[in-house]
Design a protein that fits this description.
Blueprint (H helix, E strand, L loop, with lengths): L1 H17 L3 H9 L3 H24 L10 H23 L4 H12 L15 H28 L1 H7 L1 H11 L5 H25 L4 H12 L17 H15 L2 H8 L9 H20 L5 H12 L7 H4 L2 H13 L12 H19 L7 E3 L2 E3 L1 H27 L4 H12 L16 H16 L1 H5 L4 H9 L1
Antiparallel strand pairs: 1-2
Helix pairs in contact: 1-3, 1-4, 2-3, 2-6, 3-4, 4-5, 4-6, 5-6, 5-20, 6-7, 6-9, 6-10, 7-8, 9-10, 9-11, 9-12, 11-14, 13-14, 13-16, 17-18, 18-19, 18-20, 19-20
Membrane topology: Multi-pass membrane protein
Organism: Candidatus Comchoanobacter bicostacola
Subcellular location: Cell membrane
Length: 471
């Protein structure tokens, strides 16, 4: 059955994830935090027994293409459930806060409900930053890897993010190699970021942890425990460079490796440049006392969806609205950034222009072009439907939070912070004291924004379950 084959794939992926828990366990031993080390070792051992056991139990079943979305969502839910155990065991928090903290890290949203301070065990700080780093690349590599297993099902959904590039590059039979290269690029970017932070004055330990947040565009900064962080222009510029590197799309580096220089002038890269210039000029005019580095730091923090700067606290309303729009648009496809993605934003703008143009000249034949490629009506409709689903989901979240007692404006900013995975559209203390229901709603919205809406919403279709149970 498709369900059993999907379960086999999910538990196999969770087995791989469990190996990442060995790193915080070793860090705990290094810092003599034996209680924390015991928690991680128990999660690892028991998790391995359960995951390998169920993976073996469901082995032998042929995995159908329809199971792809179930595998994708099941893997994320499984990783969240495994990740919340250390939070719940080490800190005196409720289970909903542990879920929120895990989802916030894995989706690179960067909203902290526990409250980072000097009392945190070093291994738990490492674990949080590692979760952010894994979540940043995980959503990209997992999706691309699944392409090679379930090309017909996942491929149709990720066509806008990966399919066109994959077909153009001739990767149909080499998708797994692409995932490996993307992971290698991610390692290299992280290593370069660490070295750059060390040169800029951070110690090796803090440079490593901050690099996890920057390259993944995660937003879980060490600012609460290092008050002087980013007060120097050198550290700001390091963050600017590597936030942009994380939000430009890992496929761009594949083009560099293959010396496809013409692909460096992609539409998304141009949009990033234009957005950066407009944001810097606009905020510099409104706040002329700010240095160029500080302004760029704020702009890149929002447009990369990293959310290092709480823009709602320090910017006038006009600049805040612009940063809000930047966060909603997001970064490039195939990047660690969240949001709608620049590719979809470009297609929507062209679609609106064509709609107005055909209203003026009904007989005109108009087509949407992206990087020299013409896109059909079906593809355009998919993107418009996705954008509609994005805002419909945000509206549903706002309604749920409002009905549960939150203010309308506060609910709107919270939901937009979660679904875009920016996390900085509203002060962090606004998330303290929320009810269990509100925490779980926001955690679900974070997952929807990160895993991709279609991959989750398709599971609510009765036709999907009828087909998969027959398979």
């Amino acid at each position: 059955m498709s369900l059993k084959s999907a379960a086999h794939e999910v538990f196999k992926i969770l087995t791989y994830y469990l190996y990442t828990l060995l790193l915080p366990m070793f860090v705990a031993l290094l810092f003599q935090e034996y209680q924390v080390a015991m928690v991680f070792s128990l999660v690892f051992v028991l998790g391995m027994v359960v995951c390998r056991g169920f993976s073996w139990l469901f082995s032998g079943y042929t995995c159908s293409k329809q199971a792809a979305f179930l595998v994708l969502l099941g893997s994320w839910i499984g990783v969240v459930l495994l990740s919340l155990i250390p939070w719940y065991a080490i800190f005196p928090i409720a289970i909903d806060v542990a879920i929120f903290e895990s989802v916030s890290a894995l989706t690179t949203t960067g909203v902290d409900l526990i409250g980072l301070d000097q009392s945190w065990p070093a291994s738990m700080l490492f674990f949080r930053q590692q979760l952010t780093w894994v979540g940043g690349v995980g959503v990209v590599v997992l999706a691309v890897s699944l392409l090679s297993l379930y090309d017909q099902s996942i491929y149709s959904h990720y066509l806008t993010d990966y399919g066109l590039d994959l077909r153009q590059l001739g990767f149909a039979q080499r998708v797994s190699k692409l995932a490996q290269r993307m992971l290698l690029v991610y390692f290299i970017l992280t290593a370069l970021c660490v070295l750059s932070f060390v040169v800029a004055g951070l110690g090796w330990w803090h440079a490593l942890l901050e690099s996890f947040a920057i390259v993944s565009t995660g937003g879980f900064s060490l600012k609460p425990v290092i008050p002087t962080l980013y007060e120097s222009s050198g550290q700001q510029w390091v963050a600017i460079v590597f936030m942009l590197a994380g939000s430009t799309g890992l496929l761009l580096y594949e083009f560099l490796i293959r010396r496809m220089w013409h692909r460096l002038a992609r539409t998304e890269v141009q949009y990033l440049f234009y957005m950066l210039m407009v944001g810097v000029v606009y905020i510099s005019v409104l706040q002329p006392s700010q240095s160029m580095g500080s302004v760029m730091f704020m702009v890149v923090s929002s447009m990369s969806t990293t959310g290092l700067v709480p823009v709602s606290n320090i910017l006038p309303d006009g600049a805040f609205v612009l940063m809000l729009i930047y966060g909603i648009i997001g970064g490039s496809v195939g990047s660690t950034a969240g949001g709608l993605k620049l590719y979809r934003f470009h297609v929507v703008l062209q679609g609106i222009y064509l709609l107005l143009n055909t209203a003026r000249e009904p007989d005109q034949v108009a087509t949407v072009f992206v990087d020299g490629r013409a896109y059909g009506v079906k593809h355009i409709n998919q993107i418009f439907s996705y954008v509609g689903l994005f805002f419909a989901t945000a509206l549903a979240g706002i309604i749920l939070l409002s009905l549960s007692g939150a203010g309308l404006a506060e609910s709107g900013l919270m939901v937009l912070s979660m679904i875009t995975n920016v996390g900085a559209f509203i002060p962090q203390n606004s998330f303290f004291g929320l009810s269990v229901f509100q925490n779980l709603v926001l955690a679900l919205i974070m997952l929807l924004g990160r895993v991709e809406l279609v991959a989750v919403c398709v599971l609510f279709l009765p036709q999907y379950w009828k087909r998969i149970t027959r398979g």
